[in-house]
Amino acid sequence: MPEPTIETIEALVGPATPHFAFQLRARVREAIAELPEEHPVRRYGEEQIVLLDRLGFASTKAENSEPESRDRIGWETIPSSATASEPLPRGDR
User: Fold this and answer.
1) Are 41 and 9 in contact (CB under 8 A)?
2) In this predicted model, what pLDDT tens digit does every residue of 4-61 receive, in sequence order?
């Protein structure tokens, strides 16, 4: 397997959706596994892994999108109302 690049990581993470976030997170981990800790692509990949982890509990990557009102009755139980920058609390999942 060729050494991954920032573009490799972006190609995996760019089109990510909540539905596939955890699968993509695993692919990014696999892509950077052999890189030394100080490698810039590994560091970038690790940042993207954090994003994908948050996205798995949200409904969008858009950091500036307007989420559904948190005053709505039952909001805390609706995963589709959260963004990756403010995902729902995980609780005991």
Assistant:
1) yes
2) 999 999 999 998 988 899 999 999 999 999 999 999 999 999 999 999 998 887 766 6
Q: Is 38 helix (H, G, I), strand (E, B) or coil?
A: coil
How many whole angstroms separate alpha carbon 36 and alpha carbon 42?
7
What tokens does 71 get?
């005053």
The whole-angstrom separation of Cα 52 and Cα 65 is 17
C-beta separation of 68 from 74 below 8 A? no
Which positions ≥6 away from 70 have C-beta within 8 Å?
A: 81
Q: So where are the chain's domains?
A: 6-65+72-81
**What are the backbone angles phi and psi of residue 86, rounded to the nearest 5°?**
-140, 65
- State the amino acid at position 66 in one-letter form: E
pTM comes to 0.69
